Amino acid sequence: MTTDTGEPSLTIDELAARAGITVRTVRFYGTKGLIPPPVIGARRVGHYGQRHLARLALIEELQHQGMTLAAIERYMEQLPADLSDHDLAIHRAVVASWAPDTVETVTADELRRRAGRAIGGDDVERLAAMGVVRPDGDVYRIDAGLLRLAVQLLDVPLSQDSILAARKVLVAHSRAAAHELSQLLRGEVAERAEEDVKSLSAHMEPLVLQALLTTFQRSLKEEVRKWLSGGSEEGRSA
């Protein structure tokens, strides 16, 4: 079902299934104010959308980081109430970036639960091509930190080759930026003790991450603006 704006509209059962949690948990989060109330439609049925899914994904990521329910409530209270699902996804990406590299072995049922959706053979092949899932007999080896992101990419209207090429570009430029920044840091702290270097790195990492994220967002928006502007101008001149 979709709303008049075209946004998917989910019942509480559908929302719980997509998020990989129980209906009882969804209701519990609602009573805690962690997710906004549903839109009440015909027959007094509540409907949920992408913002609810994005909030549930963020809550799950915070739990993976070891945050207590009280800490999660405080974190969510600080977020503006009108954040879009896109903004919430960015918050989740920042939180997920602190997760250690973890490879886990899961069953097919657990993979489906973690993904929040049914995973077919073609999906597994695409996830394997992204380096996120590796079938191993009757179980799967998964990159827990990247699984949700990779599952979302399954629905992006891009070819597998384009997604892999984009991943290659991002990895290459991220490594180059990390190398150059580490060189700058190394030159700044060359004479310091090892503990001082670790302390400085720990303080710098969140600042550098936020700077990179903000810079990339603005650069990407500018590129899209130029692209669309150029397309409009070409259309007018034609």
What is the CATH topology classification name of the largest domain?
Multidrug-efflux Transporter Regulator, Chain: A, Domain 2
As residue ranges, the low-confidence spans are: 1-6, 233-238
Name of the CATH first level of the largest domain: Mainly Alpha
Order of secondary-structure elements: HHEEHHHEHHEEHHH
Quantity of strands, as a count:
5
Question: Into which percentage range does the β-strand content fall?
Answer: 5-15%
Average pLDDT: 81
Note the overall shape: globular
Query: Into which percent range does the helicity of residues fall?
Result: 55-70%
User: Can you tell me the number of structural domains?
Assistant: 3
N/C terminus separation: 40 Å
Structural class, by secondary structure, is mainly alpha
How many helices? Answer: 10
Q: In what order do the strands lie side by side in the largest sheet?
A: 3-5-4
What composes the largest sheet?
3 strands, antiparallel
The rounded Rg comes to 21 Å
Q: If classified by CATH, what would the architecture of the largest domain be? A: Orthogonal Bundle
